[in-house]
C-alpha cells in the first residue's frame, strides 16, 4: 500500500506524504480514529513501520509520522481538545509507535495540535526536544501541524503575539518548518528575532540543514528535477490506478472485513439455494460513503462518479448474484437517519419476500473537527429504527453491514439480526470485498483493531489498568472485544506451552507455542494473538493485559494443523521508566508472576477467560522437555485450550 501511494503521489510532483498517523485510538469517539491503526501500541508500531518502509522504498518520497504526540487521547473525543497524559502512559503507550517509526527510518515528523498537561505540543521542549530528538534520536525534519505556530497566540493563548509564538517555538523546541499559508511574516519575524539576539543563527542553521538535507536526498535540488513531471500531473500518468494496483486494493479490503456475528451459520450466502436478495440502507449504493473523509476532498464526497474504480455494494451484489438470484434495492433511510415513509412500506415488502436482507449502515463523511460527536455515539436513530423493523420479520435473514470510520453504537438494534459485518472505510474496492465475503468467495480473517463499546459511558481500551471501575459490581461491558473476529472456518487451539517457567529480568528468552488446527470445512486464515499480563506491579497498577506478539497464518486447509511459536525477551515483560524523559529510553522489569494468554478461537465470540496461574500439581503433571533457546533443556508448562493461559515467573 505504501509503495503504491508513494508512486501515485509522486506522479503529481509531490514527494512528501503526511502519513502515517501513529496515535493509538484510545478515544473511540474521536473523528480521526479511521486514520489510525487502532488502539494497540504494538499493532500501531508494526503497521506504521511497514507503511513507512513502503512509502520511502523508492527513495523519491518521504513519509511523515504524525501527530507527535498524544493527539489521539483528546478529551471526550473532541478533536483538538486538550488532554492529560501521565509520563508512564506517554512512554509506554503513546511513544512506542513513533519510536518504531524512527527505527524504521522515517524522514519527517509532524507535531500535534493539542495541549498535553496544559502545555501546547508546539511549545513543549519536553516533547519536541527531550523525547523526540534525544530519547528517540530523531534527526529528520519536523513540521508544525496546520497553523500551530500562530495558534499558540490565537487559540492556545500561551503568548501575547505571533512574534512571541515564533520566538518560543524556535527557542524552546526543535521545529524546522511552519505549515501555514496565513503567517506571511514568519520569515520577517525570524530576521527580527535574530537581529535582536533572541534567536541564534546556529539554531536556524539546525533547521535549515534538516530541510536542505531532505530536499537533497529527494533530488529536489538537482537541476531539471521537475522536468519529468507533465503539466497535467496525475492525469498524465497511465500507471495511476492500474489494474494491478486496483487488485492490491481489493485484496487489502478483503483482508480487512471483520465478521462480528454469524448466528446459526447464516453466512456465507449460498447462491445455489437463494432466489432473492434485498439490498438496503444509506451506504448501499455510494462509493463516497465507503471512502469517508480525506478522499478526493478534505471532507470527502458523496459523488460516486468521483471514484472511477471499484463498485458500490449494490453493484457488487448485483454482479455476484446475476443469473442466480433476484436483487432488489431501495435505500429507505438516508445517512442522517431520515426515513422516507413511502419507501419504508415498500422496503418492508421487499424484505419480507426476500431470502436475505442486506442492510448497509454508516455515518456521514467527515474529517477532523467536523466529525465531533457532540451527543450520542449511536448511529442515527432512524437507521437503528429501520433496522429494528426489518429484524421483526421472520421471513428474511437480516445481515448488517457497518461502514464507518469509528465504532458507532447499535443500542441493541442488532440483537435479532442474523449476522453483523464491519468494514470500517474500505473505499472504492469495499463494495466488491464485502460481496466476496458475504457470498463466500473470501473467508473473513480480520480482527477488530479497537474495542467496540456497547455504551457511550464506558470507553476504555482493552489494556486499561486493573481498577474498581470494572469489578463485578460495576462491570465494563463491551459490544465486541479488541481482537474479535469470526471466520467461516473453525480453528482449534491446543497444547499451549512454555519452554520454561522462569526467566531472568534482564536476560534470556522464553518460547511460547500453540498448535492451531482448522476443524472447519473451508480453508481459512487465522490471526494468533499473544497477550501478557503482569499479576502485580509496584511501579504502576498493571494493565489487564497487553498484546505482545501476533502472527497471521496463511490459508490452512480443513483438518490441517500448524505449530506457532513466539519468542519473548525482556522487552516483553518490562516497561519504560517514566520519570527520565530526556535521559533515553530505559527499561525495568519487576520480578513476579506473568500470565501468557491467547485469544480464543476466532469462532468463539465470548470474552477470553481470565488468565490463571498453573498450580504446582498441574505444572508437574504437564511438564515435558523441549529444546530451549541456545540448545538448553528446560521445564515446559503445557495447557490445553480448556485453560488457555499459562504463567511464567521473572526473577532478579
TrEMBL record:
A biological-process GO annotation: glucan catabolic process
Reactions catalysed according to its record: Hydrolysis of terminal, non-reducing beta-D-glucosyl residues with release of beta-D-glucose
Keywords: Glycosidase, Hydrolase, Signal
EC number: 3.2.1.21
Residue span of region Disordered: 599-634
Chain ranges of the Fibronectin type III-like domain: 526-602
InterPro entries from the UniProt entry: Cellulose_Degrad_GH3, Fn3-like, GH, Glyco_hydro_3_C, Glyco_hydro_3_C_sf, Glyco_hydro_3_N, Glyco_hydro_3_N_sf, Ig-like_fold
UniProt xrefs under Gene3D superfamilies: Glycoside hydrolase family 3 C-terminal domain (3.40.50.1700), Glycoside hydrolase, family 3, N-terminal domain (3.20.20.300), Immunoglobulins (2.60.40.10)
GO molecular function: beta-glucosidase activity
Residue stretches in coiled coil: none
Family stated for the protein in its record: Belongs to the glycosyl hydrolase 3 family.
PANTHER family linked: LYSOSOMAL BETA GLUCOSIDASE, PERIPLASMIC BETA-GLUCOSIDASE-RELATED
Record protein name field: beta-glucosidase
Lineage per the UniProt record: Eukaryota, Sar, Stramenopiles, Oomycota, Peronosporomycetes
Amino acid at each position: 500500500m505504501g509503495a503504491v501511494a508513494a508512486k501515485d503521489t509522486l506522479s503529481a510532483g509531490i514527494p512528501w506524504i503526511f502519513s502515517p498517523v501513529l496515535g493509538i485510538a484510545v478515544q473511540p469517539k474521536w473523528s480521526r480514529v479511521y486514520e489510525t491503526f487502532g488502539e494497540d501500541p504494538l499493532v500501531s508500531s508494526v503497521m506504521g513501520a511497514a507503511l513507512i518502509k513502503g512509502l520511502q522504498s523508492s527513495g523519491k518520497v518521504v513519509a511523515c509520522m504524525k501527530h507527535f504526540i498524544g493527539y489521539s487521547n483528546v478529551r471526550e473525543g473532541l478533536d483538538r481538545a486538550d488532554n492529560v497524559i501521565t509520563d508512564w502512559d506517554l512512554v509506554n503507550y503513546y511513544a512506542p509507535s513513533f519510536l518504531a517509526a524512527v527505527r524504521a527510518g522515517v524522514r519527517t515528523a509532524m507535531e500535534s495540535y493539542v495541549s498535553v498537561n496544559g502545555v501546547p505540543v508546539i511549545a513543549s521542549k519536553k516533547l519536541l526536544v527531550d523525547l523526540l530528538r534525544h530519547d528517540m534520536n530523531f534527526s529528520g525534519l519536523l513540521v508544525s501541524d496546520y497553523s500551530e505556530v500562530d495558534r499558540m497566540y490565537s487559540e492556545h493563548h500561551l503568548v501575547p503575539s505571533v512574534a512571541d509564538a515564533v520566538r518560543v517555538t524556535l527557542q524552546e523546541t526543535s521545529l524546522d518548518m511552519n505549515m501555514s499559508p496565513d503567517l506571511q511574516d514568519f520569515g520577517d519575524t525570524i530576521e527580527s528575532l535574530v537581529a535582536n539576539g533572541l534567536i541564534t543563527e546556529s539554531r536556524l542553521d539546525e533547521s535549515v540543514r534538516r530541510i536542505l538535507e531532505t530536499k537533497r536526498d529527494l533530488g529536489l535540488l538537482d537541476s531539471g528535477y521537475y522536468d519529468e513531471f507533465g503539466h497535467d500531473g496525475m492525469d498524465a500518468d497511465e500507471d495511476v490506478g492500474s489494474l494491478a494496483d486496483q487488485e492490491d486494493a481489493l485484496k487489502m479490503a478483503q483482508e480487512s472485513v471483520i465478521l462480528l456475528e454469524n448466528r446459526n451459520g447464516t453466512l456465507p450466502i449460498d447462491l445455489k439455494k437463494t432466489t432473492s436478495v434485498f439490498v438496503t440502507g444509506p451506504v448501499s449504493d455510494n462509493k463516497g460513503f465507503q471512502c469517508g473523509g480525506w478522499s478526493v476532498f478534505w471532507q470527502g464526497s458523496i459523488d460516486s462518479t468521483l471514484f472511477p474504480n471499484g463498485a458500490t455494494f449494490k453493484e457488487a451484489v448485483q454482479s455476484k448474484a446475476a443469473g442466480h438470484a433476484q436483487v432488489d434495492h431501495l435505500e429507505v433511510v438516508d445517512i442522517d437517519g431520515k426515513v422516507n415513509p413511502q419507501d419504508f412500506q415498500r422496503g418492508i415488502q421487499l424484505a419480507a419476500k426476500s431470502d436475505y436482507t442486506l442492510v448497509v449502515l454508516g455515518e456521514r463523511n467527515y474529517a477532523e473537527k467536523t466529525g465531533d460527536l457532540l451527543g450520542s455515539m449511536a448511529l442515527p436513530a432512524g437507521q437503528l429504527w429501520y433496522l429494528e423493523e426489518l429484524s421483526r420479520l421472520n421471513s428474511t435473514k437480516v445481515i448488517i453491514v457497518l461502514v464507518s470510520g469509528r465504532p458507532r453504537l447499535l443500542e441493541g438494534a442488532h440483537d435479532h439480526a442474523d449476522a453483523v459485518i464491519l468494514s470500517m472505510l474500505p473505499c472504492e474496492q469495499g463494495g466488491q470485498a464485502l460481496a466476496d465475503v458475504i457470498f463466500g468467495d473470501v473467508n473473513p480473517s480480520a480482527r477488530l483493531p479497537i474495542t467496540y463499546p456497547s455504551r457511550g459511558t464506558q470507553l476504555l481500551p482493552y489494556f486499561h489498568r486493573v481498577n474498581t471501575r470494572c469489578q463485578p459490581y460495576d462491570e465494563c461491558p463491551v459490544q465486541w472485544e479488541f481482537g474479535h473476529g469470526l471466520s467461516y472456518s473453525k480453528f482449534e487451539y491446543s497444547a499451549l506451552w512454555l519452554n520454561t517457567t522462569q526467566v531472568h529480568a534482564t536476560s534470556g528468552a522464553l518460547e511460547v507455542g500453540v498448535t492451531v488446527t482448522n476443524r472447519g470445512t473451508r480453508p481459512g486464515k487465522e490471526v494468533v494473538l499473544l497477550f501478557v499480563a503482569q499479576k502485580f506491579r509496584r511501579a504502576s497498577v498493571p494493565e489487564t493485559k497487553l498484546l505482545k506478539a501476533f502472527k497471521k497464518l496463511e490459508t490452512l486447509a480443513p483438518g490441517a494443523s500448524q505449530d506457532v511459536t513466539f519468542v519473548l525477551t525482556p522487552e516483553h515483560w518490562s516497561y519504560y521508566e517514566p520519570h527520565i524523559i530526556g535521559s533515553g529510553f530505559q527499561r525495568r522489569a519487576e520480578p513476579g508472576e506473568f500470565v501468557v494468554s491467547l485469544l480464543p478461537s476466532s469462532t468463539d465470540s465470548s470474552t477470553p477467560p481470565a488468565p490463571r496461574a498453573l498450580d504446582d500439581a498441574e505444572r508437574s503433571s504437564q511438564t515435558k522437555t523441549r529444546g530451549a533457546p541456545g540448545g538448553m533443556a528446560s521445564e515446559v508448562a503445557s495447557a490445553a485450550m480448556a485453560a488457555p493461559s499459562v504463567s511464567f515467573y521473572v526473577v532478579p
